[in-house]
Specification:
The protein has about 260 residues and is an alpha/beta fold. Among the domains are: about 120 residues, Rossmann fold, CATH 3.40.50.300; about 30 residues. The chain has a six-stranded mixed β-sheet with strand order 6-7-8-3-9-10, sandwiched between helices. Strands 2-1-4-5 form a four-stranded antiparallel β-sheet, with helices on one face. Strand 4 and strand 5 form a beta hairpin. Helix 3 packs across helix 4, helix 3 packs parallel to helix 5 and helix 4 packs across helix 5. The longest helix is centred in the last third of the chain and has 34 residues. The radius of gyration is 23 Å and the shape is globular.
Length: about 260
């Protein structure tokens, strides 16, 4: 689904990401972890094409989005749902209207709005608060609105940047249950976090970043599985060759 190959991003004399290489499979849930300033948010913004790397490739479903013409960037972003730590909701709009904004940006048919908004608000447990304003909601509810807004466009991938950073443990735990449910339904989720409790509880793959470098977890489970299968495949082929040789030897004796 997503892969970075030798990606480097600098800001002046500061190297935010250095030679980053990793892959995320379709439907996988992965964590980007590391200390503050490690480069987690930069990676998310590179995937979203908010930044362009100084070098390297970023593949989205096999296509290098680094070379994507600017006019096609909005189309790319319509396939990506984003959940921010600070929610980024419109204070003068209701919950329903905040979710509808994403449909307006995507230019989804008006005839679909009502059902799609209702479905995602039911999923995140906010259908009864659809007419409230952000100022009337708790932190956990605000983050669930943000998640609903990301989901309503039916994205292929969800990027979440420290979504539990402003939440207490119980509320964060409830929110992670939602992300887990979304992942099981087939969405690819890449979440940047420094919340050890969440990472340890969910036991998903952890791509570790330190000072802009990938220091662990960059290889996808599918690739590892293929590598493990190769020795077994060789053994099978070897046995087949032995059997074939014995059969040929037996036929020669008969002759």
């Amino acid at each position: 689904m997503i892969s970075l190959k030798g990606v480097t991003k600098t800001f002046g004399k500061i190297t935010a990401i250095e030679d980053a290489t990793f892959a995320v499979d379709k439907g996988e849930f992965v964590f980007l972890t590391g200390p503050s300033g490690a480069g987690k948010t930069t990676i998310l913004k590179l995937i979203l094409r908010e930044y362009l790397p100084d070098k390297g490739k970023i593949l989205f479903e096999g296509k290098n989005i680094v070379q994507l013409p600017d006019k096609f960037v909005p189309s790319l972003r319509q396939q990506i749902g984003v959940v921010f730590q600070d929610f980024k909701l419109l204070s003068e709009r209701t919950v329903r209207e905040n979710v509808e904004v994403a449909l307006a940006v995507k230019e989804a048919p008006l005839s679909e709005w009502k059902k799609r908004v209702r479905d995602v608000l039911e999923l995140v447990g906010l259908i009864e608060r659809s007419q409230l304003f952000p100022s009337q909601l708790s932190g956990g509810e605000l983050q669930r609105v943000s998640l609903a807004r990301a989901l309503v466009i039916n994205p292929k991938i969800i990027l979440a940047d420290e979504p539990t950073g402003n939440l207490d443990w119980e509320t964060a735990d409830e929110l992670m249950d939602l992300f887990e449910k979304i992942s099981k339904e087939g969405k690819t989720v890449i979440m940047a976090t420094h919340h050890r409790g969440i990472v340890d509880k969910l036991k998903k793959r952890e791509i570790k970043i330190d000072k802009g470098k990938i220091v662990g977890g960059g290889e996808s489970p599918k690739k590892k599985t293929k590598l493990k299968e190769k020795p077994a495949e060789k053994k099978v082929e070897k046995e087949k060759t032995k059997v074939k040789a014995k059969v040929e030897e037996a036929e020669e004796k008969k002759e």
